[in-house]
Amino acid sequence: PCSGSAFTRNSSEKRISFIDFIATNGNNGNNPFNCQWLINGPAGKSIYLALNYLTIGGDCSQSNITFTLTKNVTTICNKNITSDLPLHISTGYATINFHSEISFPHAFKVSFKSYIE
């Protein structure tokens, strides 16, 4: 049900890397499922994370996605986001946790860009 693996950004190049994280449970009834992805930032540098598209259905009791950054936790539910949601990871890591109580497809793409500060 989960695709996309841990992502590590070691490059100091000022370029954008695209990666897809996809969570889907198809038509598998109402079986809960969870996905987690880890993003590692380069030591001493920063990553700017932009969430380009995300669809979460239902309310918070049905499905949610939680971003845990070094010093920040953000939970999103019941939203359709089509604009960038910028998140800043400075020297550390982030996790993306997806949880759903119901079965319907979810797909979102995140883009990463690292800078030398």
TrEMBL record:
Keywords: Disulfide bond. InterPro entries: CUB_dom, Sperma_CUB_dom_sf. It comes from the Eukaryota. Disulfide bonds join C60-C77. It comes from Mytilus galloprovincialis. Coiled coil: none annotated. This is CUB domain-containing protein. Residues 2-117 form the CUB domain. Transmembrane segments: none annotated.
